[in-house]
Amino acid sequence: MFTTIISRDKENKARLKEKAILLVEEKGWDIQKAFHRYGFNISPFSYPRILARYRKGGKRNLMDARGGNRHPKTTPVVLDFISQAKRQNPTQSAKEIASLLQERFQITFHPVYVGNLLRKLRLNNSPGRRPIPKTVPIHHIDHAGSFFLKGVCLKMGIIDTLISTVMNRIQARQRSQSLQNLSIFQRSSPVIQAKLESLLYMPLFRMERIWHFKTVYPREGLGFLLGRNMPYKYHTMDNFLREISRLKIADMLSKNLAKCYIEVFGIKFETLDEQTFYIDCHDKATWTHFNIPKGKHATRNKILKLLKVYFLHDFHGRPILPVTRPGDSHLTQVLFPLMSQLEEALGKKVIKIAVFDREGLAVWVFQEMTKQGRCFITFLRDNQYESEEDFDIPTGQRYRPFRYRHGKVTQLILDANKTLKDYKTAQTYRARTILIKDKSKNKLLVVVTNITREEESDPKKIVERYAHRWEAQENPFKRMKPSVYLDANHGLKAKELPTNRTLLTKRQKLEDTIVAKQTKIQKAQDVERQARQELKHGQEFYHEISQKTENQLKDVTSLLRQAPTRTARLLQRQSKLFRQKEKIAQRWLKKATKLNSTIQEKTVLIRSHQKSLDQAQTKLSKLPVEERLYEIDISKDQFMTNLEVALTNADLYFKEHFLPPAYKRYDFETIRDILYAQSGTIRQTLQEINVFLRPYAQEPEHQKLAEYAARKFNQAQVYTSTNQKITMEVEKLVS
Fold first, then answer.
1. How far is CA 402 from CA 116, 292, 425, 492, in A?
2. Cβ contacts of 639 within 8 Å, gap of 6 or more
3. Which of the residue ranges 166-170, 252-256, 296-300, 349-353 would you say has the lowest mean pLDDT?
4. Per DSSP, what are the bridge partners of residue 437?
5. Are 542 and 617 within one domain?
6. Pair (556, 448) in one structural domain
7. Bridge partners, 139 (sequence order)
8. Residue 273 counted as domain residue
9. 16, 156, 370, 589: which sits with the fewest CB atoms below 10 Å from its CB?
10. What are 456-477's pLDDT values in tens digits?
11. What span, in angstroms and rounded, lies between the C-alpha atoms of 616 and 614?
12. How far apart are CA 596 and CA 605, in angstroms?
């Protein structure tokens, strides 16, 4: 009876544990919160073990095996099984026999317990190292195709760049008093390399964040990819990323990796294309309760809390250098530091043409680019100019056909000039402007550049170089976002800033608006006052002239009655006075109408400015006097962005050198699903790592692609840092 009650209690507990697991896995609940709901105090570090037991045997494996309901282990049948297994294979370890017992009796035997039994039975192995087996063990792993990308990272020198940069930084910072307690200083180079590779390969296994080392993973594939049997656990990787971000290594890593990409892709900077770089920003929305700087998210068209990741791409669309900045940063602030960072890494000036979008528009930017001997190409804002009359058209220039559709001209192009002015600083810049007129939409697009007509006479080539931005930057952004999880945030640690620059900027803008509106109101009032005075004086003068003319008419009329013999001259005089009177009336009516129109226009304008002034004053009065502003520590994000860029370039290199030309435009996600995620087997020796991919039974085209990639890969002769040669093969299809 007592045993039955205990059994039911264990079943109930197992059922409640199952409910807690479902809350975590299906609804995304926090582990401790989910188990606490059903009365369990479970550590997050114990959860993977509980989840593995549940997935292996369901609710039955969640039942507590301790207490009076425990299965007897040391039965004669168990002892006979151990003896027989040991006689068949004397070199088997206690761990291997425990696995056989689990499979045979469905009871968990701890290796230490099995070892004690072997010792009692006098069947334990002799002291010393176990004999090396003659056969190489075969391991079945998921994502065996990821060794393609591991080999490419080794071939490109990405792994060497990562580990050398980190180790050099560790050696430089070891004496820092604030960093003495970091465990990373006690780790060997191979261990640090394995952890760096864990972070690098995360997107290969659909892991967006470090948290996924607990919830999405681990699987065996990542462990073998790192050169160890098991991948690292969540708390290990979380601590590693936290410590490595404290080394402030992201900027140095960006430069070293950029130099690596330039060398690997063979960019010699000899042609104009190789000297052309595209610069743009990716908005990364950040979900945090801290009041951090905000910015306009271009895709969502909303003001959000975000981080901005600026990228420098080469002409072929390869990301070379990323840099992360707060959400209120502007391209004009990052443009020159970004170019300087690349040239500092290479030790020479390499950027001849910088192509960027409208965010980089500023007269001082154009002046500085020209001063540095660089060229720029960008677009003016839409609908800023209505026609070519707003531009200076050189002699001999006219609209020429530019785009065709179905044999008809759809766009025209005109090479012109324009003096651009900064209305805040009153600075001007004479730029070359290329007008593109859309005939169907009656829309005028304007490309602005400082490339002279002596350097490039054909404006079409300049426009085409800008239009190439979509393939060189916009499309890579779209491919990177879902593939390497460019939108993922890797750290939301925030620090309070001493001054709230966002609040100061808002206050300054409102104060500038108030001053500007007050000035405009004053000017409009002065014009209105002057118009009213002119209207008043004009009215008086008109009445005076009209009265004088009227008196003269009366005199002429009186003379006509008294002297009928001089009628002709008097009639002529009378007609002239009538004409003069009519002319004065028309002239005054025209002037009065104009003055009344000015008064009415200025009155409406004053009301409009007064309304804007009241709104600005209201907003200014509602601004908080003291509001805390926080800024996200971008060190983690910048470090992980470097790894995402590295993996992207490794994928581009793999498609360029190991796949047929038709696959060069495929994105990372597609190639991952076809090749990198393919499961298989692995055999490892001290000299080789042999990877065998599972055959593609349902996709013969994928089978051919994998075989082609394996042949190319093996021809490249790829070796690991431990001098093991990696070879790839694809198992043959069974007909």
1. 87, 46, 36, 49
2. 241, 244, 245, 249, 250, 253, 490
3. 296-300
4. 412, 444
5. yes
6. no
7. 682
8. no
9. 589
10. 999 999 999 999 999 999 999 8
11. 5
12. 14
Rounded mean pLDDT of the chain? 87
**Does residue 568 form part of some domain?**
yes
CA neighbours closer than 13 Å in the CB half-sphere of residue 587 = 12
Long-range CB contacts for residues 178-182, cutoff 8 Å, separation at least 24: 179/246, 179/247, 182/243, 182/246
CA distance 581 to 376: 65
Structure-token pair, residue 724: 């093991």
Strand order across the beta sheet in which 138-141 lies: 138-141, 680-684, 688-693, 725-730, 718-719
Least confident of 135-139, 257-261, 412-416, 444-448: 135-139
Domain boundary among 396, 423, 455: 455
Enumerate the H helices of 563-679 as residue ranges. 567-622, 635-658, 668-671
Pick from 152, 169, 167, 231: nearest CA to 199 = 231
Residue of 306, 367, 381 lying closest to 332 (CA atoms): 367
Residue 416 shares a structural domain with residue 519: no
Contacts of 585 (CB under 8 A, 6+ apart): 546
Q: Is residue 734 part of a domain?
A: no
Quickly tell me which residue has 């003896």 as its tokens. Answer: 83
> Does residue 129 carry a pLDDT above 70?
no
Give the residue-averaged pLDDT of 223-249.
Answer: 89
Q: Which of 470, 471, 484 is nearest to 671 (CA)?
A: 484
The reported pLDDT for the residue numbered 574 is: 75
Mean pLDDT within 369-374: 95
Q: Taking residues 493-497, what's their average pLDDT?
A: 88
Reported as a single tens digit per residue, the pLDDT across 547-586 is 887 888 787 777 777 766 557 777 777 788 788 878 888 8
Instruction: Give me the domain span that covers residue 408.
Output: 377-455
Number of structural domains found in the chain:
4
Helices (H) and strands (E) in the chain, counts: 23, 17
Residues 560 and 519 in one domain: yes
Q: Is the pLDDT of residue 166 over 70?
A: yes
Lookup result for tokens 């435009």 = 665
The distance of Cα 461 from the centroid of its chain, to the nearest Å, equals 29
| Phi, psi values for residue 333, rounded to 5° | -80, -25
Residues 52 and 114 occupy one common structural domain? no
> Is pLDDT of 589 > 80?
yes
| pLDDT of res. 1 | 42
How is 483-520 classified by DSSP, letter by letter? Answer: HTTTT------EEE-SS-HHHHHHHHHHHHHHHHHHHH
Which residue type occupies 210? I
Cis peptide before 218 (omega within 30 of 0): yes
Task: Express each pLDDT in 688-709 by its tens digit.
Answer: 999 999 999 889 999 999 999 9
Integer Cα distance of 306 and 608 in angstroms = 34
SS3 percent helix, strand, coil of the chain, rounded to 5, is: 55, 15, 30
Query: What is residue 374's three-state secondary structure?
Result: coil
Which helix (H) or strand (E) segment is 402 a member of?
A: strand 400-405
Asked if residue 306 belongs to a domain, the reply is no
Would the pLDDT of 381 be above 90?
no
210, 490 contact by CB (below 8 A): yes
Report for 219-228, 340-349, 402-411: range of highest mean pLDDT: 340-349
Together in a domain, 511 and 616: yes
**HSE-up of 603 (CA within 13 Å, CB side)?**
8
39 lies in the same domain as 98: no
Is 354:512 a contact under the CB 8 Å cutoff?
no
Are residues 557 and 583 both part of a single domain?
yes
The number of residues making up the chain comes to: 735
Nearest to 644 by CA among 501, 487, 515: 487
Q: Which of 622, 652, 670 finishes a domain? A: 622
